[in-house]
Design brief:
The chain is α/β, with parallel strands linked by helices and 230 residues long. Helix content is 43%, strand content 18%. It is globular, with a radius of gyration of 16 Å.
Length: 230
């Protein structure tokens, strides 16, 4: 199982983010990921760094890390712009890009409305997701953020990875019987024990959110993980 870290991008500038990415790379973490939000959920007055410029900077600074948003929302960026963003990132970091994609949901709708960005119906957003997955598959590694059954079916139909957010070990095990599965979310308490359980359940990646005890994550990677790129 590969190990990833979600970077703390809800900041005024990128200095801390770049430092943590460098620290993670030195510790053997396989990849780093960035939120695709205009502000932290529920906190519209707080800042957020845009994911793709930051990932582009990291592509040059950290040549061994896998990079990607988690997840890029078709309902926010639009499928054509996202395809161009991933093409640029792939040119900067060939073979090291994860196109983790999602439709967005009611919790993120407020971001669209605040900036006058159309927020389509679930069917429309799933249609855009389907088209984008089809266009990117074969060019980069593609993950689909798990959601409604119809969204999850897109991942299976295109034989790409299903990413589960804060899913139980039991769900990881069940979903891994049907498709390649990655996990992302909060790790607290005994980080090593949780990572062992996710690896045993079949997760191809575990991507820890920003509040993880990073040294515990690094310790598991040093002693139990196998560090490699896609």
């Amino acid at each position: 199982m590969k190990i990833g870290l979600l970077l703390p991008t809800f900041r005024d500038d990128a200095h801390e983010v770049l430092a943590i990415a460098h620290e993670a790379s030195a510790a053997g973490v396989d990849g780093v990921f960035c939120y695709d939000h205009l502000w932290p959920m529920g906190s519209p007055t707080r800042p957020a760094l845009a994911p793709f410029p930051l990932l582009a900077a990291l592509a040059k600074r950290e040549p061994r890390l896998v990079l990607g948003p988690l997840v890029a929302r078709v309902g926010l960026g639009g499928p054509e712009r996202l395809r161009q963003e991933f093409a640029t990132l792939q040119a900067l970091a060939p073979g090291r890009v994860v196109a983790a994609l999602g439709t967005g949901d009611r919790l993120s709708r407020e971001e669209n409305e605040a900036y006058g960005i159309a927020y389509g119906s679930p069917e429309q957003r799933r249609g855009e997701l389907r088209d984008l997955v089809g266009a990117l598959r074969g060019e980069v590694e593609v993950w689909v953020g798990a959601g409604a059954p119809a969204t999850n079916e897109i991942a299976r139909a295109f034989d790409v990875t299903l990413n589960l957010w804060n899913a139980s070990v039991e769900r990881v095990r069940e979903e891994s019987r049907h498709s390649r599965v990655t996990w992302a979310g909060d790790l607290s308490g005994d980080v090593g024990e949780q990572l062992d359980a996710l690896a045993e359940a079949g997760a191809a990646w575990a991507v820890a959110s920003t509040n993880v005890a990073r040294e515990a994550l690094y310790e598991w990677q040093r002693h139990r993980g196998v560090s490699s790129v896609i």
